[in-house]
Every structure is written in structure tokens, then in C-alpha cells.
Amino acid sequence: MQPFTYSRKGIPFFHEKTKLEFQQDIYERYHEMVVRQSALHIADELWGRYPFQPILDFAEKHYPQEAESNILEIGCGVGRWIATLAKHYPKSTCWGIDYSYQMLKRANEFWVEGQEIAIDLSDKGLDEHSQKGEQLGNLNFGLAKAEKLPFEENSQTLVLNSFLLDRLENPTMGLKEMYRVLKPTGKLILISPLNFKKAEHWKVYYPPSQLANILKEIGFLVLDWKDDVIVNEPLDSHGNVVRWKCLGFVVQK
Predict the structure, then answer these.
(1) In this predicted model, what pLDDT tens digit does every residue of 162-184 receive, in sequence order?
(2) What's the CATH architecture for 6-252?
(3) d(C-alpha 77, C-alpha 117), whole Å
(4) Which residue, among 86, 80, 134, has the nearest Cα to 109 in the 3D structure?
């Protein structure tokens, strides 16, 4: 693993994020993003369920058989998915990488330091909520870009990401980096709503058959492909939701 340039509040920076990059990154906005993502991925009691459980259900059957693995989630947000793996594989080394410092700070506070966090979405008609954290000794978080991962070639047993691919500046470069860091026969599990923000990305990666061709050109072998992983993201106490129709796939190096 490459050395980090500096750390802040226990978060190593493998990418030297500039002041302008901080300002332009909407995921650095605390209440709008961090509090909301904490509510969605940590405070299940607010919704009576885990809203993103369909992602875990799709992925679970493809997890490693080995008790000791290197597991990496890219775009980990507040850390729910990679923490789930860290608990399931206590002998494994697990990393959550994200581009947002604020998200990583919350993830580290909750899943590594074990801090209790307060979540206030009263502006959405929800009760204030507090959640006690956990201390997972095999889990680490760091700031990096998906297109330039700080991990050695052939080092990861499993790479995960969700709601990331369509946010990357260069999705193909990101996929090539995921391929690079995977061990031979290692798996990539990826879920995306394919909600691209750039016209050129729609032309290159949509329909999904074009994305499948890119994966094969990189060198991946497709093991599983599902184009209707449905995630209903709750918005408020009235039951309004955003319905995400996601593509889920599992590929092997």
C-alpha cells in the first residue's frame, strides 16, 4: 500500500484534496449529506428497515469463502457495507475508501472509534435519533480517488462499490483500477443506478450491454448480471421515496 501524504482526525489522505476540490464536492456538506447518509445507513430504526438491504442481498452469495481476505469498498460513504463485511470476516483486513472527508470522518467515528452519534432529521418529520457506535479493529478508512487507488496490484480478494460508477469522472479508468488491485480470481461486486451526469457517459456506458463489453475488454469475466436491483430510498416520515432501478453485477479477474 502506498504511503499517505497526511492524515486528519484519523483519516489518511492518499489524494491531496485541494481547497477548491473541497468546495466543489457536495458530499462534504455536513447536514445535507453526512447527516442524511448517516440516517439512511446507520439508523435503521428511523425507517423500520435498512433501505439499502437489496444491495447486500444481491451481493451476499458472492462473498469470499476464505476467512482471511483483503476486502475493499470504494465510495464507502459512512461505512455500512464495509463494516458489515468487517464483522462477517473478523480475520480479514477491510478498507473503506471515499473521496469525501466528512463521510469518512463519520464512518471512522462510528465504526472504528465506537462513538455514539446523534441524527436530527426533524426537518423531514422524523424524531431525533442517537445510535451507539462499534469498534471494529480490522476496519480502516482513507481518502482517495477511485481512479487512483493506493493499493498494490493483485492485493484485494474482493472489491465492492455501490452508487459510485455513474459519479466518476472517468468510469473506465475506475474499472481498470479495480481490476488492477484485484487478486487473480478476485471478484468485483458493483451496483449502480446508471444515473450518469454527463452526456458522453450515457453514450459510452448505456445501454448496459455497452458497459458489459467494456468490462470484457478490461479482462473481467462476468459471473452475475441483474438489471433490476430495486432500492427505495426514503425521503421523510410521510413515506415519500426515490426509487432507484440499479444494475448489479459480479465480475472476476
Answers:
(1) 999 999 999 999 999 999 999 99
(2) 3-Layer(aba) Sandwich (3.40)
(3) 15
(4) 134
